[in-house]
Automatic annotation (TrEMBL):
Belongs to the RLP family. It comes from Quercus lobata. It is found in: Cell membrane. One of its GO terms (cellular component) is plasma membrane. Residues 216-426 form the Disease resistance R13L4/SHOC-2-like LRR domain. This is Leucine-rich repeat-containing N-terminal plant-type domain-containing protein.
Length: 797
């Protein structure tokens, strides 16, 4: 769901920026536009629709000089229209554009032309030098007439995913083209695209991302792109090796994009002949083999992304030659060996990502010696360990540090307190033990993401306000009361510690305020006290859970819903929340689909009292685990209202009474454990409940019926029928009351709604009331006078 939202946000931003910039096209000149061209523009306007309040069309008035209109630029000397920029519009493009004989710049990008075809008459506008039709919702075959624009320097048709070409030969007519963008245009039928494009001798930038191309013609020995500076071939389907002809590309090539192409084999040495290359993206392919030793030849390289391949071997010492390097991304490969100390020579390095590799050995002060500009450090899930002096002061100021699974301990790294700009600190499984130093909690109180999980840290968390959006202290040895948290916290994981004290005080204090809490795991601690009724959701019940809407409101149904993770993006980094949950009796780690899990897990604590009946209002809850506590009372009768429940674990408590018959209504229920309680009576009859193992009901001596081997006695059967009869009576009474309420509401609003919306009815109704009032008044007066007359006559007699 994130992707469509981000696309819409980008569209609105581009639309606002483009429209706002139109004011700069107004011409401050005494030369007026030609009447014929003005009329042509007004005719064009008639077929267009504004999609934005900032649309330039609102300034197109017949009373004004067209050279002053937004989006229109005229020649200062002749008054001829030479530039036209219209963004944020829909409708139809009129052939009246052909009257603009001197137009050299036409921008119809960021529009909605509702899947119409690109007008073929645009190919007759011979003076065009710049044509931008990107992201404008065009569809169909791109007209070959565009090949007549021999003077065109700039052509952008990108972002129109329903455009296609089955023949590129007409492009040979674009003899002056310098910038060509066909991103997302379907070219899968074109097999000679490479030879045709290479003949465009003036071409400087070529963008063919997501075009359905399936071959780079590896058999070719020579491709002549003499002027090419940017080549984008990302997100296509090249199931072969990187061809050697890349070494014949223009020596002026600065940027090369080959990501997400299913490329295989080794990185050819020829690619390192591109001496002026500054930007190289080859991530998310299937490249293998050793990391190329010749990397150091690309001395102008500032961005290198090889993530998500299967490259092996060590990083070469020549890495230190890349003095311009700013972003180095080598994550998710099979790289091994030690990190060369020449890494410390990269004085311009801003971001370093080497996570999910097989690196070993230590990192000392030399590895970071000249990394003055380093902001992002991701060395997670490697076998590296820090070996720096306790008084080491790093030369950098980090904003993001992910050192998961690296050996940092056993002590807290003292150098962290020198990092005043840090907003993202992730150090799970890093071998840290002992008490957290006194400086740590004050220093970290304003870090947005803090993950210290799965270490051996012990002690109390001091009574200071922690402002983290994500706080993960899972699987440590923390004790004492829970810390104070800001209302900004989204993820709180304190499972598997020794926190103690009443949980209801913490929960209700936290949840009664407006907050953004999405993930809470407090299982396996030493909490005590009752589960308070503050867990209610509506009516007169206190509203302490009202802001956790996901427990009540269904998730919108999206096509890729279950492929999303609960990811938090902060600009400087992202954090994917993960939890160890026990949804069906087995401990499982949820990460990729955690976003769609609704779970309450308060198992293995010292909770007492009743299970609050208000919990049954959580109709979107999937998993409920209250096992291994000291809960008493009965199972809420309305638990069957929780239609999405898949797993219920109430085992090892002191719950008594009968199993509610409403449990048989839970059609998704595939795990139920009620063992070791004080339940009694017959297990309700349903195909689902009888399908569970008898082990899930044992430890309840007074329970009988399948799947248990104990048969119910006559008294137990009669008691069960009586209970069911009461339930049915209550259900009938409830249905009768509900029917009365619905009937009253319908009748009331039928009458009142008619009076409110129908003026004739309203006048007739009030006239009727006035007539009734007059009749009652007259009748009452006559009746009173008659009674008084009778009394007077009686008195005289």
């Amino acid at each position: 769901m994130g992707a469509p939202f981000a696309t819409h946000l980008l569209f609105l931003f581009c639309l606002f920026t483009a429209t706002f910039s139109l004011n700069f096209f107004k011409v401050e000149s005494n030369v007026s536009c030609h009447a014929k061209e003005k009329q042509a523009l007004l005719t064009l306007k008639q077929g267009l629709i504004d999609l934005s309040v900032l649309s330039p069309l609102s300034s197109w008035s017949d009373q004004q000089d067209c050279c002053t209109w937004d989006g229109v630029r005229c020649d200062n000397k002749t008054g001829r229209v030479i530039e036209l920029t219209l963004n944020g519009i829909a409708g139809e493009i009129s052939p009246s554009l052909l009257e603009l004989k001197f137009l050299n710049h036409l921008d119809f990008s960021i529009n909605d032309f509702n899947c119409s075809r690109i007008p073929s008459f645009l190919g007759s506008m011979g003076n065009l030098r710049h044509l931008d039709l990107s992201n404008a919702a065009f569809c169909g075959l791109i007209p070959q007439q565009l090949g007549n624009l021999s003077g065109l320097h700039y052509l952008d048709l990108g972002g129109n995913s329903y455009l296609y070409l089955d023949n590129l030969h007409w492009m040979s007519g674009l003899s002056s083209i310098q910038y060509l963008n066909l991103n997302s245009v379907n070219l899968h039928k074109e097999v000679d695209w490479l030879q045709i494009m290479s003949k465009l001798s003036s071409l400087s930038e070529l963008y063919l991302s997501s075009c359905g191309l399936d071959s780079l013609n590896p058999s070719l020995r020579f491709v002549n792109f003499t002027s090419l500076r940017v080549l984008d071939l990302s997100q296509n389907h090249f199931y072969h090796e990187i061809p050697n002809w890349f070494s014949n590309l223009s020596t002026s090539l600065l940027k090369l994009y080959l990501s997400e192409n299913s490329l295989m084999g080794n990185i050819p040495p020829s690619i390192f002949n591109l001496q002026r290359l500054e930007y190289l993206e080859v991530q998310l392919n299937s490249l293998s083999g050793k990391f190329p030793e010749s990397l150091g030849q690309l001395k102008h390289l500032s961005y290198l992304n090889l993530e998500g391949n299967s490259l092996s071997g060590p990083i070469p010492l020549s890495l230190g030659n890349l003095s311009e390097m700013q972003n180095l991304k080598l994550a998710r490969n099979k790289l091994n060996g030690t990190i060369p100390k020449t890494l410390g020579l990269l004085s311009n390095l801003v971001s370093l990502s080497i996570s999910f590799n097989l690196f070993t050995g230590s990192l000392d002060e030399v590895h970071f010696a000249k990394l003055w500009k380093l902001k992002i450090l991701d060395m997670s899930h490697t076998l590296l360990f820090f070996n720096v002096n306790s008084n080491w002061v790093p030369p950098f100021q980090l904003e993001q540090a992910d050192m998961s699974s690296c050996k940092i301990g056993p002590k807290f790294p003292p150098w962290l307190q020198t990092q005043r700009s840090l907003q993202f600190l992730v150090m799970p499984m890093s071998g840290i033990s002992g008490n957290a130093p006194s400086w740590f909690w004050n220093w970290s109180s304003n870090i947005n993401t803090t993950d210290l999980s799965e270490n051996q840290i012990k002690g109390d968390v001091p009574d200071i306000l922690l402002n983290s959006i994500v706080l993960n202290l899972r699987s440590n040895h923390f004790k004492g009361r829970l810390p104070r948290l800001s209302t900004n916290v989204k993820v709180l994981n304190i499972a598997n510690n020794s926190f103690s004290g009443p949980i209801s005080t913490f929960l209700c204090k936290k949840l009664n305020r407006k907050n953004d809490l999405e993930v809470l795991d407090a299982s396996n601690n030493l909490f005590s006290g009752e589960l308070s009724n503050c867990w209610s959701l509506s009516g007169p019940i206190p509203n302490c859970l009202k802001n956790i809407i996901a427990m009540v409101v269904p998730e919108p149904n999206t096509q890729d819903a279950y492929f999303d993770s609960l990811e938090y993006n902060f600009g400087y980094g992202s954090y994917i929340a993960n939890l160890m949950l026990v949804p069906k009796g087995n401990e499982l780690e949820y990460e990729e689909n955690l976003k769609f899990v609704r779970i309450i897990d308060l198992s293995s604590n010292n909770l007492s009292g009743l299970i609050p009946v208000e919990i049954s209002f959580l109709s979107e809850l999937h998993f409920l685990n209250l096992s291994r506590n000291h809960l008493m009372g009965s199972i809420p009768e309305k638990i069957g209202y929780m239609k999405e429940l898949e797993s219920i674990d109430l085992s090892r408590n002191h719950i008594s009474g009968e199993i509610p018959s409403s449990l048989s209504n839970l059609t998704f229920l595939n795990y139920l454990d009620l063992s070791y309680n004080n339940l009694s009576g017959r297990i309700p009859s349903s195909t689902q409940l009888q399908s569970f193992d008898a082990l899930n009901f044992i430890g309840n001596p007074q329970l009988c019926g399948e799947p248990l081997s104990k048969h119910c006695t006559v008294n137990e059967e009669a008691h069960n029928r009586t209970s069911m009869g009461k339930t049915e009576d209550n259900s009938q009474n409830s249905s009768f009351s509900m029917g009365m309420g619905v009937g009253f509401a319908v009748g009331f609003w039928t009458v009142c709604g008619g009076l409110f919306f129908n003026k004739t009815w309203r006048h007739a109704y009030f006239k009727f009331l006035n007539d009734i009032n007059d009749w009652l008044y007259v009748t009452t007066i006559l009746k009173v006078n008659w009674i008084l007359e009778k009394l007077r006559s009686s008195h005289l007699n």
